[in-house]
Design brief:
This protein is α/β, with parallel strands linked by helices and 366 residues long. It has 3 domains: 2-125, 3-Layer(aba) Sandwich (Rossmann fold); 127-203; 206-366, Rossmann fold (3-Layer(aba) Sandwich). It contains 15 helices and 8 strands. The strands form 2 sheets. The chain has a 4-stranded parallel sheet, sandwiched between helices. Helix 1 runs antiparallel to helix 6 (127-154) and helix 7 (163-177) runs antiparallel to helix 8 (181-196). The chain is globular and about 70 Å long. It starts with a strand and ends with a helix. It binds iron/sulfur cluster. The site of iron/sulfur cluster (SF4) has 12 residues, from helix 14.
Length: 366
Amino acid sequence: MKVTFPHMGNLYIPVRAILQELGLEVVVPPLPSKNSLNFGVKHSPEFACFPLKVNLGDFIEAHHRGADTVIMAGGIGPCRFGYYAEVQREILRDLGYELEMVVLEPPRGHLGELLEKIRRLTGKRSLRQVWAALQLGWEKFLAVDEVERLSHRVRPREGRRGSTTAAYRQALALIDQAGDIQETRSALARGEEILNNIPRKSGVSPVRIGLVGEIFMLLEPFANLHLEEALGELGAEVERSLYLSDWIKTHLFLDALRWKKKKESRVAEAAAPYLRHFVGGDGLDSVGNTVLYAQQGFDGVIQLMPFTCMPEIVAQSILPRVSQEKNIPVLTLILDEQSGEAGIRTRLEAFVDLLERRRTALAQEE
Ligand code: SF4
């Protein structure tokens, strides 16, 4: 069995470690690119969600490199995510690709089903081996999130443009290469050291921007046109409302046990005056996190969504009211295969400029 899985930011680092630790042969697709996207766009329905097209491109690229099994997340709820894997399965079959799809769905209290599918992948591996693989993967999830958070703080203060991105990539490579938990911890420490040693400008006070929106657009730099890098280099400090390890904790472990995570209920409470129920995907979180960012004194919020994303369209229709009542500027960016980096860059420059001027004006009023 040669397994592959879709890209979503740094997901490939811990997932590859888990699968290799389980003794599986892993084919990591090349990082998403114009080339893989072209495959996805060519073979997907025009109005399919943008992430579906990017992922389909990943699978085709992986198949060309020998993969025969795809591990894909499934979904439930009112948006189209529940159909994703089925649609992709059909498309791949029509193309004549012999790819088996193993769809892992959020357990929602039925842990048994999920474990059964995992069992298909792990075969005769003992529980101890599976547990050891998961532990290594978890350590890598925490490590990649940690260096990513740090890069967000360092980038707007860097003395030489691009130095944070280079150091961040170096840190990720160290974590990727680590062979066990101890090595992962050392790689994290070394990565943090490299990022912390970047020469910084003194006396800068960057505007702070919260990022909300659909998970794939938030986590995958190719899909969001490297927005975090662009904002950091424009002098803004970003904080993302979602990191991989948070998502795993909430949607796999706590969900399986039907426990609500504290942060999740805090987000739902913050959203409640505007939106009281789950609308699929991350729509409710986009509203709640925007309120929380306003309460925490952030200068602005950017909502990221794929074109035609239903949950984010709901959030988008509510955010102007949140923006007005909570007095926080909100910019919505709708992205798909037609979006170009130059156009987005111009809008980001204008937004950061607006936030800086607004901050100066508010300071003068005090
Ligand atoms: S959250 Fe949006 S982009 Fe993701 S599957 Fe649902 S509708 Fe599509």
